[in-house]
Amino acid sequence: MEFIANNPGRYAITGVPCFHKAIRLLKRQNPLYHERIQFQLGLVCGQLKSALYFEYLLRRADVPTGKVESACFRRKDSKSRADEYFFEAIVQANDGKKNIYRISNKKIGVNWGMGLFKPKACDYCDDVFAETADIAVMDGWLPKYVNDGRGTSLIVVRDERLMDVLTGGRKAGNLHLEDISTEEIVKSQLGGLNQRRKGLAYRLSLSADKMPAKRIRPASSFPFLFKFEQIIRLALRKTSRHAMVLQTQAGSGLLIFNVLMALQFFFYRIVQELKRIFRT
C-alpha cells in the first residue's frame, strides 16, 4: 500500500479474501487507492498460516541450518495427480553451493484440514470465494480434473472488463477455457464451505469472545461426531502454535512438537476414520 501511494500507476493486487475486504474498505475511504487499484484478484482460501508453518516444513524436509534462498509450498509434478505436490526449499550451503530439499505433501504427515499454525481469526471467517474481489481463482478439486498433475484452475469473474480479457484470450487461442456450472464450483470447495458455514455456526456457539457480527448465526444442533471434530480442530490450531514455539526455542528437530501434539493427532485421525466408516 505504501508503494502504491508513492508510485502513480494502475495496479492489480492478488490476495486472500480478508486482504481484499481490507482493500475495499481502504478504497472507500481513500480516493487515491480507489483510483490506482484497478483490479483485485482473489484466491479462494481455506486458512492462512503463521511463519511457524514454514519452520515446521523445513524440519520435516530435513533442511539443514543455512540460508534459505527460496521456497515453494506447492511444487507440482505434471506426471502425478493435482492433489500430490511437494514443499521445496533451496538452501545455500557454507561452500556456496545451492541444494534443493523436497518433501511430498503425502509424507508431511498432516493434512490441510487440521488447521495447524493458522491464526485464530481464520476460525471466524465466513468468506470462502473472495467475495469482495473482482475475480476469484481456486483449485479444481473435482474428479474430472484431479488426475491432471498440471492442475486446473476454476474462476468466478465479477468484472466485465476481466471477462472481456478472458474471452479475448480464448478467441486468440492463448487461453483454454471451459464453462462450468455453479453447482460444480460449490462442489469443488465443499470442504471449505462446510468449515465456514456449519463449522462456523458451531464455533460461534462455543466462543465467549467479542467479535464482529457474522452473517452465520450461532448454532449447536449438529451430530456429535461433527462437533467433536470442530473441537479437535480448535485445539490443534492453538496447541500447534504453542508447541512449535517451544520446539524452536529448544533447538532442531520436532521431538517436542510431536510429543505435545501426539494425543490431538490421535483423536483427529480417529474422527476421520469414523467419518469414513459412517459414510460407507
Can you characterise this structure?
A hairpin with an 8-residue loop joins strand 3 (67-76) and strand 4 (85-92). The mean pLDDT is 93. This protein is α/β, with parallel strands linked by helices and 280 residues long. The strands form two sheets. A four-stranded mixed sheet has the order 1-2-6-7, with helices on both faces. Strands 3-4-5 form a three-stranded antiparallel sheet. The termini are far apart. The protein contains twelve helices and seven strands. It is globular, with a radius of gyration of 21 Å.
Which key phrases capture this entry?
280 residues, alpha/beta, four-stranded mixed sheet, single chain
- Kindly report how far apart the N and C termini lie: 50 Å
List segments where confidence is low: pLDDT < 50 over at least 5 consecutive residues.
none
Mean pLDDT across the residues is 93
Strand content of the residues, in percent?
A: 15-25%
* Main β-sheet description: 4 strands, mixed
Q: What's the count of strands? A: 7
Q: Output the number of helix runs.
A: 12
Strand order of the largest sheet: 1-2-6-7
N-to-C series of helices and strands: HEHHEHEEEHEHEHHHHHH
Classification by helices and strands? alpha/beta
Task: Give Rg in angstroms.
Answer: 21 Å
The geometry reads as globular
Helix content bin? 40-55%
